[in-house]
């Protein structure tokens, strides 16, 4: 075996530069100085005898070979990390560090209830949370920067395993004085006044799928960056929106004149689940975590 092999640290620098596209931000992500990161990458290029990155004052550009090597390096880093995960999984379950992604349409409504119970049940668990949109969280999961994700399904997230927690119903939120007496059918929604989240939030796709009206995607006004923002817009009479039941239960409408009614449709709910990379050595731990989350919710 050749003794001139790249180190994991060098591969980490390469992947960080590819992810951030900037030497300073990549160095910050690796907790090293920019000069240390740059020197490590030059050593890597010298070691394998090829140029991986074209450096200019304004831009960092990977060569085609550099892109392929960075992709391979990402897989190697993930495999190396799973070696440590195997050792942790063989020891005390749900102890040590765990990095969980949570999407913004779940985090503020569910975590205040879940976290105290998790701390009580698993005092040795160091849970680090990262709030990201659905696609960004899935990307982070497959890059290895997250261990698991609290996600709303259905959503295409690649090769993952999942544990269902519960179904979360969808409600139509109306401005003060406009709400009907009972449930709302999709055909009763005025597409010209419908406010939805920006692209990247799976709640938008779940809402449109539940309504099963193709014209809504074209005509709905997608302005909101969060469910809270949408509710405030509705409260000011700018339109109506669709909110998850967990948000209503958590009191998102308190202090407003907004009234929410259940959406009466065949698929008027989203499935809340914990997902992780397929084949992860910590799958038993994640299933234990899912059971704890389900009980707390």
From TrEMBL:
The protein's name in its UniProt record: Hydrogen peroxide-inducible genes activator
InterPro entries: LysR_HTH_N (IPR000847), LysR_subst-bd (IPR005119), WH-like_DNA-bd_sf (IPR036388), WH_DNA-bd_sf (IPR036390)
SUPFAM superfamilies: Periplasmic binding protein-like II, Winged helix' DNA-binding domain
Record keyword DNA repair present: no
Family (UniProt): Belongs to the LysR transcriptional regulatory family.
Annotated PROSITE patterns: HTH_LYSR (PS50931)
Keywords: DNA-binding, Transcription, Transcription regulation
Record's keyword annotation contains Kinase: no
Gene3D superfamilies cross-referenced by the UniProt entry: Periplasmic binding protein-like II (3.40.190.10), Winged helix-like DNA-binding domain superfamily/Winged helix DNA-binding domain (1.10.10.10)
Top-level taxon of the source organism: Bacteria
Span of domain HTH lysR-type: 6-63
Signal sequence interval, chain numbering: none
């Amino acid at each position: 075996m050749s003794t001139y092999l790249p180190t994991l640290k060098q591969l980490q620098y390469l992947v960080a530069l590819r992810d951030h596209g900037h030497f300073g931000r990549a160095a910050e992500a690796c907790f090293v100085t920019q000069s240390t990161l740059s020197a490590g990458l030059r050593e890597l290029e010298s070691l394998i005898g090829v140029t991986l990155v074209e450096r200019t004052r304004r831009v960092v550009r990977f060569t085609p070979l550099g892109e392929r090597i960075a992709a391979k390096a990402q897989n190697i880093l993930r495999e190396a990390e799973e070696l440590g995960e195997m050792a942790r999984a063989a020891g005390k379950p749900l102890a040590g560090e765990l990095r969980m992604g949570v999407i913004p349409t779940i985090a503020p409504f569910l975590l205040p209830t879940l976290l105290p119970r998790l701390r009580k049940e698993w005092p040795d668990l160091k849970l680090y949370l990262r709030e990201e949109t659905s696609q960004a969280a899935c990307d982070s999961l497959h890059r290895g920067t997250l261990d698991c994700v609290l996600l709303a399904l259905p959503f295409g997230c690649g090769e993952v395993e999942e544990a269902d927690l519960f179904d979360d119903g969808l409600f139509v939120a109306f401005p003060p004085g406009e709400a009907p007496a009972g449930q709302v059918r999709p055909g009763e929604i005025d597409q010209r006044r419908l406010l939805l989240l920006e692209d990247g939030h799976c709640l938008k796709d779940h809402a449109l799928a539940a309504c099963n009206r193709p014209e809504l995607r074209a005509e709905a006004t997608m302005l909101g960056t969060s469910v809270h923002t949408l509710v405030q817009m509705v409260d000011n009479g700018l339109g109506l929106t669709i909110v998850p039941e967990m948000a209503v239960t958590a009191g998102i409408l308190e202090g407003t004149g907004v009234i929410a009614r259940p959406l009466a449709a065949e698929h008027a709910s989203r499935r809340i689940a914990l997902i992780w990379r397929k084949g992860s050595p910590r799958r038993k731990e994640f299933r234990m975590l899912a059971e704890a989350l389900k009980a707390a919710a």
